[in-house]
Amino acid sequence: MTADVVLRRGLVVAALTPFVGTSVRVDKARFAAQIDVLAAARPVAVTVGAVESQEFQVLSKAARLGLVDAAREGLPDDVPVMAGVSSASLKESIALAGEIAKRGASVAAAVASPKPWGAAPTPDEAHRWFATLADESPIPVLLYNNPRLGVDLSVDAMARICSHPNVVAIKETSRDEQKLLGLVNRIQGSAHVYTNMELLLSTLVLGGSGAMLPTSGLPIASRLVEAFEAGDVTEAARLQLFFSEFPGRWTGLGFLPAVKAAAGLMGCELGEPLWPWSGLDDTARAEMREFLAKWDLLDHFAGKES
């Protein structure tokens, strides 16, 4: 299977995981409402249980598979579901890839991770891990490079991994423009290169495929891609300025509390971060409300369900 069969240029949305109260149980109603919002937006793909902002590390296997089921049920057939298969055990990642494929997922997303004892893998070890997963997975694989969650692979290491015919995309999260340039030069064409919302315009200008971003980043990012594709680079640049402040201005507690709070203010309530971790306080939330109002984003998702 090639990258073009599954994916295309544009935006991949990471559906955030709402929880019931202080438990680790997924709030199915809120998750389904979020999927309805994304179904109406029709992004390139939707990911579940794959990235750190989805808080997948605390989810049981059954919960992770339940997210796949809910996403596949709520999305149009032509919006692929990418599902996370990250695990300390390669054997478990391979087994999970098989399970998500049975449930209709189109891509297995895996984080480039340290060895079980915490050391960074050598390039050969990282390649061996992903090549084995790609060999055994019944669906294509996405390489997720995130220094905050795992390790930061070199361009050479990522290019080697992406040379496997069943590795169809990379999500590059180091926010390093030099690395982005190298990846587009080495990988784009054989696999899709997606970055983050802060580098979305740079990625498009350089010829990359787009960005993977949370639900609350989607409204402005969608307008940016539309402007860029229409040849209005000035407007695309203006919209990129949104990401000069969002979400970085509110990430004192980390990325997740900011993007979850923003989703709620935009009309897609996803609750607080997993307990006992803190969400934004009233002061920060009021500042974010004021900022989002200037961009006409308050309650943006209200009534957007399909």
Query: Roughly how many Å apart are the termini?
Result: 30 Å
Rg measurement, Å: 18 Å
The geometry reads as globular
- The number of helical segments is 13
- Quaternary state of this entry equals single chain
Sheet with the most strands: spatial strand order: 1-2-3-4-5-6-7-8
- Total beta strand runs: 8
Sheet with most strands: 8 strands, parallel, barrel
Strand content: 5-15%
Helix content: 40-55%
Helix-strand string:
HEHEHEHEHEHEHEHEHHHHH
Average pLDDT value? 95
Structural class: alpha/beta
Describe the structure in your own words.
The chain is of the alpha/beta class and 306 residues long. α4 packs parallel to α5 (123-136). The chain is built from 13 helices and 8 strands. The radius of gyration is 18 Å and the shape is globular. An 8-stranded parallel beta barrel has the order 1-2-3-4-5-6-7-8, surrounded by 7 helices. α5 links the parallel β4 and β5. It has helices spanning 3-6, 28-41, 61-74, 90-102, 123-136, 155-162, 177-186, 200-206, 218-229, 233-240, 242-245, 255-265, 282-294, and strands at residues 10-14, 45-48, 81-84, 107-111, 141-145, 167-172, 192-195, 210-214.
SSE arrangement:
Layout: H1 3-6, E1 10-14, H2 28-41, E2 45-48, H3 61-74, E3 81-84, H4 90-102, E4 107-111, H5 123-136, E5 141-145, H6 155-162, E6 167-172, H7 177-186, E7 192-195, H8 200-206, E8 210-214, H9 218-229, H10 233-240, H11 242-245, H12 255-265, H13 282-294
Parallel strand pairs: 1-2, 1-8, 2-3, 3-4, 4-5, 5-6, 6-7, 7-8
Helix pairs in contact: 2-3, 4-5, 5-6, 9-10
